[in-house]
């Protein structure tokens, strides 16, 4: 049994083994519906989610598991129960894995120290979102074979993005060069120490990128004014049609979703030939099956 609390703590060979295992879970692969038969996967999502929660649910059902779901509304968290009490009570139901999304950074780590089953972090505040980074890396590996020597440009609200942090760790571990770009107020210190390069000039680095990952402005996490206006942001950092034309001919566009169309990404680019955004979603199921398998075994 193993937790997946972050990309931090996973070695390159372990990440590659997990991504290789996910290949067998693509549609048309061998039947895996016995793997977690009779076992329970508990989804504890105390923050909104469209993709991640349903992706874990589809993945768990594909492995034959029973799935239980809790949200902030509909669980006793709304009656004042602490996260630890909720988690311990869910643990008493005997799940193989608890999948947790929480507004607080470190929440899954806290739960993991107090329960005996595996814990998977499905996004903790602005900290990590490891399954998203793994499905992003999986999508790029399927396109490229290897990430070694490739340049991935991450553009947007890095400050508040758990996706950016997990991807920086994951992509550099797999051999890619990662450049992070955004307005100075949305780029936190310390990214170079984590292996990234930082720039505030999108148009200068854009032609170097083999893939561009656009991030949403996480306005729900912005306590104060980080930006003059979203229109100004779109003008300086939005991936519009003109910018997409200056990318390498084969370069890809990724986005973890949800997209704010016309802000970080123009609709024509989101739906255009460079976009692998829906591939990311489809690949997410195979990657999460592999994660649940590894963590539950
Ligand atoms: C992201 C998240 O929730 O961290 N979405 C996702 O899980 N696919 C990114 C976001 O909310 O912008």
Characterise this structure:
The protein is of the alpha/beta class and 297 residues long. It folds into two domains: 12-128 and 284-296, 3-Layer(aba) Sandwich (Rossmann fold), CATH 3.40.50.1370; 130-280, Aspartate/ornithine carbamoyltransferase (Rossmann fold, 3-Layer(aba) Sandwich), CATH 3.40.50. 36% of the residues lie in helices and 15% in strands. It is built from eleven helices and nine strands. The protein has helices at residues 12-23, 51-62, 83-91, 107-112, 130-144, 162-173, 202-205, 230-237, 241-245, 267-270, 277-296, and strands at 40-45, 66-71, 97-102, 118-124, 151-155, 177-181, 197-199, 211-214, 252-254. The strands form two sheets. A five-stranded parallel sheet has the order 7-6-5-8-9, covered by helices on one side. Strands 2-1-3-4 form a four-stranded parallel sheet, sandwiched between helices. It binds N-carbamoyl-L-aspartate. Residues 51-52, 123, 129, 132, 162-163, 216, 218, 256-257 line the site of N-carbamoyl-L-aspartate (NCD). The site of N-carbamoyl-L-aspartate has 11 residues, from helix 2 and helix 6.
SSE inventory with pairings:
Blueprint: H1 12-23, E1 40-45, H2 51-62, E2 66-71, H3 83-91, E3 97-102, H4 107-112, E4 118-124, H5 130-144, E5 151-155, H6 162-173, E6 177-181, E7 197-199, H7 202-205, E8 211-214, H8 230-237, H9 241-245, E9 252-254, H10 267-270, H11 277-296
Parallel strand pairs: 1-2, 1-3, 3-4, 5-6, 5-8, 6-7, 8-9
Helix pairs in contact: 1-11, 2-11, 5-6, 5-11
Bound molecules: N-carbamoyl-L-aspartate.
């Amino acid at each position: 049994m193993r937790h997946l609390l972050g990309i931090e703590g996973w070695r390159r060979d372990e990440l590659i083994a997990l991504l290789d295992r996910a290949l067998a879970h693509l549609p048309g692969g061998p039947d895996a519906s016995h793997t977690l038969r009779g076992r329970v996967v508990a989804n504890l999502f105390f923050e909104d989610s469209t993709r991640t929660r349903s992706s874990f649910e589809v993945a768990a059902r594909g492995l034959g598991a029973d799935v239980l779901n809790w949200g902030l509304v509909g669980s006793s968290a709304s009656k004042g129960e602490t996260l630890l009490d909720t988690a311990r009570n869910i643990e008493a139901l005997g799940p193989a894995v608890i999948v947790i999304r929480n507004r607080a950074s470190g929440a899954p780590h806290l739960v993991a120290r107090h329960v005996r089953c595996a814990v998977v972090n499905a996004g903790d505040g602005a900290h990590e979102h490891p399954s998203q980074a793994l499905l992003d890396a999986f999508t790029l590996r399927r396109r490229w074979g290897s990430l070694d020597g490739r340049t991935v440009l991450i553009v947007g609200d890095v400050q508040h993005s758990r996706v950016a942090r997990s991807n920086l760790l994951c992509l550099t571990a797999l051999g890619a060069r990662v450049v992070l770009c955004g307005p100075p107020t949305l780029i936190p210190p310390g990214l170079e120490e984590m292996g990234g390069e930082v720039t505030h000039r999108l148009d200068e680095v854009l032609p170097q990128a083999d893939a561009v990952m656009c991030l949403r402005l996480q306005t729900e996490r912005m306590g104060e004014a980080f930006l003059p206006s979203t229109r100004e942001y779109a003008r300086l950092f939005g991936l519009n049609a003109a910018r997409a034309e200056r990318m390498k001919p084969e370069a890809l566009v990724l986005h973890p979703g949800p997209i704010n169309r016309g802000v970080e990404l123009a609709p024509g680019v989101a739906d255009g030939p460079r976009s692998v955004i829906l591939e990311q979603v489809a690949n997410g199921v195979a990657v999460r099956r592999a994660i649940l398998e590894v963590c539950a075994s």
